[in-house]
Amino acid sequence: SALGLLGFASIAAAAPLHTRADAATTVRVMPFGASIVEITCWRAYLWKKLHDAGISNTDFVGSHATPSAGCTLAGAPVPFDADNEGHSGAKVTDYASQSTLPHWLSSANPNVILMHVGTNDAAANISTAKVFAAYDTLISQMRAQNPRVTLVASKLIPIDPALFGQFVVDRLNEYNFAMEGWVKRTSTAQSEIVLVDMVTGFDYKTMTREGEHPNEKGDVFMAERFFPAVKDAL
Q: Is residue 164 part of a domain?
């Protein structure tokens, strides 16, 4: 499977429990990014999809639990593990330059990281080269904490050019195109990076609240796109 995790069958017997991802082990999953991770409900819908599929060996981890008001789906509350490491307004370049991630990694000790971050860098017109140098720093920090960590990296969801300007959309498109090559050259058998396509089929006109953050329809879309990669990782 293109989304499968290579090598777990061969390493499981030798790997310490805290770095294993198998059916008998609780797997620590850290959603990581900015506001599209922190204040939205795709994590709730992903948690529900995993449990509906009989996958309950998960512990979502992070330094805070949001959104504080909880999440609903078609008007019904959705119980979920709300812990995450999303921080509204954050840039991937700031995470790298300020070295904020290692402390969170040390506290959470994740096996799997779900990453959607970079939209605020595009809004600040930060170059693709600087953004991917920052991604390099972050994956190095992740692997320093856990050499067998799996990163599920999401392309950045489309945003409304009327809200941000076409230059921001163009920059975002550059990031998403470059993400494909970055994943291929950075993924390893020991620590795989799985790319999730959040672009194809995402309509910012009907799937966002205001042109940036997903609404319920957009959250469902994101959960459905994350689900196969996370299911395979677990």
A: yes
Q: Is residue 15 part of a domain?
A: no
Burial of 1 per CB tally in 10 Å (0-12, 13-18, 19+): exposed
- The reported pTM is 0.89
Number of domains in the chain: 1
Whether residue 105 lies inside any domain: the answer is yes
Phi and psi at residue 226, in whole multiples of 5°?
A: -70, -35
163: Cβ contacts below 8 Å, ≥ 6 apart: 210, 211, 212
Taking a C-beta distance cutoff of 8 angstroms, is the pair 84, 60 a contact?
Answer: yes
Preceding omega of 67 cis (within 30 degrees of 0): yes
* Per-residue pLDDT reduced to its tens digit, 72-118: 999 999 999 999 999 999 999 999 999 999 999 999 999 999 999 99
Which range marks the domain in which residue 123 is found? 33-233
Closest alpha carbon to 39 in 195, 203, 224, 215? 215
In this structure, what CATH number is given to the domain that contains residue 88?
3.40.50.1110
For 154-200, write each residue's pLDDT tens digit. Answer: 999 999 999 999 999 999 999 999 999 999 999 999 999 999 999 99
| Cα distance between the two ends of the chain | 14
How many Å apart are CA 152 and CA 113, to the nearest integer? 6
Within-domain flag for 5: no
d(CA 6, CA 129): 29
Q: Tell me: the pLDDT tens digits for 135-154?
A: 999 999 999 999 999 999 99
